[in-house]
Amino acid sequence: MANSIDTLTSTVAVDRPQHGQAEAHTAKNSSTRHKKLSVRDKKNLRLGLLFISPWIVGVCVFVVYPLIYSLVISLTRYSGMNKPSFIGFQNYVTAFTDPLVKISAGNTLFYAGLAVPIGLVVAIVLALAMNRNVREVAFYRTALYIPSLVPAFALSFIFVVFVNPQFGVFNQFLKLFGAGNTNLLGEPTSAKVVIVLMAQLAAGNAAIIFLAGLRNIPVTLYEAARVDGAGPIRQFVSITLPLLSPVILFNLITGISGALQVFTEAYVLTNGVGGPDNGTLFYMLYLYKTAFSYASLGYASALAVLLFIVGMLMAGLVYFVSKRFVNYDVAAG
User: What pLDDT score was predicted for residue 3?
Assistant: First the structure.
């Protein structure tokens, strides 16, 4: 018994210096972290800043400066020709009472509410098709991705011909079933739906990102699920979707950002009018007309600032809600 106590005492005595050494080592590391940069570190920092200086200049010139300038101009009455005159927040007051702002915002939200979720579904389906283990997969990937490379203005001209009420392919197809000519661009709701369908041809970009996410999911998870008797649908719901949730979040935020800025399709299809009956007068199209057709750059800048704020709030809301659903736990192995 005495020998055991002596042994325990000697162990504690040995441990105390080691504990003191650990504390000293921690304090040394802390002081090392807070010490001044050496000459070599300063040189590396200067070289690093030099290499990223084009990016810094680009961000300052094309992002930071325009944001600040738009914010300043939004507080003035400015046509682009005369000198700006300060009017405070009058442009923002006008924006909240302008009926065309409400119409254009409603059209944009209608478009975003359809185009974004449909686009996510289409992109996931394309990614699953691209991920098939077949010999011709390279051809399939190319064929499915090519439509997203077509510029939006060119795609819009194609759709003008496609839905033409006299000789368009769509109406020729309807005639096979005895239906008459239908002018899809002549009714506000159907015109917006046409633009929503056009947006799905650009789903290849999101599909490539989804494909990268699919390739990052461990195959062993699917093998274990098959052993447990899980079918393809069960595997998709229980494995694929949860592990794709970070990619879904990314594509959702970028999709919302793009949907809020929809412009080219409506401009080409309606010759910049936003018809019929303001049915395709999206927010960006109204902003453009306000700035360059009505020569009211101050008011247009206020609209741009409001769009920026709404976009940031929506992205922040999506990111906050996503904390409940996005899964970052499983890494590829």
Answer: 45
- Residue 235 structure tokens: 């595997």
Residues 118 and 220: their CA atoms lie apart, in Å, by 30
Sign for the pseudo-dihedral over CA of 69, 71, 72, 78 = positive
Supply the DSSP string of 224-276, one letter for each residue: HHHHTT--HHHHIIIIIHHHHHHHHHHHHHHHHHHHHT--HHHHHHTTTS--S
CB count within 10 Å of CB 285 equals 24
pTM flag (> 0.85): no
Instruction: State the CB neighbour count (10 A cutoff) for residue 316.
Output: 11
What is residue 169's predicted lDDT score, i.e. its pLDDT?
Answer: 83
The full set of domain ranges for the chain reads 93-322
Q: How far is the C-alpha of 174 from the C-alpha of 253, rounded, in Å? A: 37
Crossing angle of helices 204-215/241-260, nearest 10°? 160
Mark the ranges of the chain whose per-residue pLDDT is less than 50. Answer: 1-20, 22-23, 27-28, 30-31, 331-333
pLDDT at residue 333 in the model: 43
- Please name the fold of domain 93-322: MetI-like fold (1.10.3720)
